[in-house]
Amino acid sequence: MSGSLPGPGLSASRESLEPRPELVLRVRGLSVEVATASGRIEAVRGVGFELRRGEAIGLVGESGSGKTLTCRAVLGALPAGCVLSGGTIELDGVDLAALDRSGWTSVRSTRVGAVFQDPASYLNPSLPVGEQLAEVIRVKGGKRRAAARGRALELLATMHLHRPAHVYQQIPAELSGGMLQRVMIAIAVACDPVLLVADEATTALDLTTQREVIDLLSELRERLGLAVVFVSHDLAAVAELCDRVAVFYAGEVVEIGDTVSVISAPSHPYTEALLRVGFLGSEEEAALEVIPGRHPRLGEASAGCRFAPRCAHRRESCSRPLGLTPAPAGGRVRCLRSPELALVGAELG
Questions:
Q1: Does domain 21-111+194-207+230-349 have CATH number 3.40.50.1110?
Q2: pTM for this one?
Q3: pLDDT in tens, 125-144
């Protein structure tokens, strides 16, 4: 992971001697409700994590687990019918949850950048991509036209786009998916944000292009000191890019910790199941390997562990409510039985 994964042998004493970079993002007790015909239903509950300058955290879990709603809340861009119902989102000590519409508009693209799955849908199909990038620099960054064009060309080169002056003049239809995603990353970092939210930014790309985009994000982290929230179904991509990982299930974080520990020694049965189906050696095997049962429906009641109906380790005690508690290998986990379970992780190599 471009040197950002902590080595297994790093001692606590040495770690404590190294200065910790400043805190960029602190999310606490984040809850999101969704409007339905029968009333509001809590879709995300009590999510919390912190992110420091130059760090990356991966949010993983099945579709509908709350990853994207969490990101959208951090961006102040929840879909229609969804509201932030609780918690705080502090960026450099300022609670974004308290901002009005104009406050959010001033934060997005300046302090916080975002990249999503389908870059073409966020670009005007009839305008050259360079002009669209320069326009962001003019409007959000306050640059004059000539300076904005120069900055745009510089950014396209930083994204490792061959012949940036030529790319500047091309419309979106003339660029590949990977090139379009690089343009969107350039737009996201054009005004020097402190935080980048990448929501499924590599999902629609082929494997080679995915790796190139991951390498680019790693490079930007190190060069610009960006804090990155990275949402993906691809655990290998998360392992490559992220220092820490938060595992989501049914709107809750069920495990959070440093990436090496979570992947090599998962503390929650759901994390272990994700690793089992996500790190198999061939497509043929992957097609046969599934997590039994089904993901809870939105609003489906559960007194205790929401994963219990699908868990091979469940006991009667799993019906009791439980918050996040210290995990055996570090981090925190939402599982009563984690101290006694010996779960097998996946190889990072």
A1: no
A2: 0.87
A3: 999 999 999 999 999 888 99
